[in-house]
Please model this.
Amino acid sequence: MVTKRPVESFCMFTFAVIGLAHPALAASDQDNGKQWIGTWATSAQSPMPGTPETYRNQSVRLIVHTSTGGKKVRIKISNTYGDQPLQIGAAHIARRAAEADIDPASDRTLKFHGQASTKIPARSTAVSDPVDLDVPALSDLAISLFFPETTAATTFHIVAKQTNYVSTETGDSTAAAKFPVGKKIRSWPFLTGVDIEGSRRAGAIVALGSSLTDGDGSTTDTNRRWPDVLAERLQKEGGVLAEMGVLNGGIIGNRLLSDSPGKDSPFGFALGESGLARFERDVLSQSGVKYVFVGLGINDIAFPGSLSPASAFVSTESLKAGYRQLIARAHKKGVRIIGTTNPVFEDSFLTLDKQKVTFFTPEKEAVRQEINAWILNSKEFDDAIDFDAVVRDPNRPTRIRADFDSGDHLHPNNAGYIDTGNIVPLAIFKH
Model:
């Protein structure tokens, strides 16, 4: 569901059409017992209505937290929602030292087709050439991009829950050990993925979801989203599980069946395409994907009559049909799919233009209860996990536990996300 807080503010081959599979990526894997595995990812969004963040002959330094580690790395840059080519003047990757500063011994220049700069066509993505770099698991990397032209952030991820940096100086600052910070932002412009070279037995786990996957309600710069907690557990478990990357595909306000409300909404197109529409790009095209969690449905249930017309009321049968589409598409690609229950939302609210918007009705709750029972008992998903049971108040099971409530009666705080990440049985990744 959307947040009540203010919004926080591949090129081995290029694709001109959104949503195409990426055969060039598979073809680039070396026949040496290795494959590319996503260690970090985020889902692309359009900006909120109004003037987007703009860079004028400036650099950005973007901080990402890895899940699994490796010795070779590449990044993904997205111009998915841009209607003009995106000019990248320079790009670097390094291990972060502290805040915006890097370990200079780890700094690597990223190239695209052997060139230090690249132009990414509108509605396209690009992957850098790989570089040798020791990337530890559960570590922070700094990816620096230089925009030599005036560049509006038409493709970015809104709620990063991570402090990132814009240079105060004009010109290329991508190699600077001490980054000249002019502004702090809490979004990820253009950067959508980091891959490491892993073994053939490794793989990636994608968490497809809404703000509850994105980590809304958790503390910025603490990596307490539930997929982060899962990644930590996999590393602690060791063995092949420590080679599994965990990728966050959450978007605030995202729905399973419907796209963002559009131009007539205060959120415009920023809440993303539906889970059905973005499943290919954000899940099936991720490097090394073997598993996907589906955490969508609560916004489909809650929005009608609040952020969408009451006539858009979603039935359990419509949701089941949507889930079944994802299940079939995942299985066609050999990906195991894990269903998760939709959380409690009684008394949940959003403050919009100083007005309080509420979501709960008994009719919506009946749909939530029925669809949750189907997720858990139908056996149509390969596995099912009751996230709802983790956060609901046992004395009032339609409402979130007070000690897990971040304040809007929907999004958990750090403690709630930790317990959510801890409930996932690691045995499901041993198939």
Summary: The first strand starts at residue 34 and ends at 41.
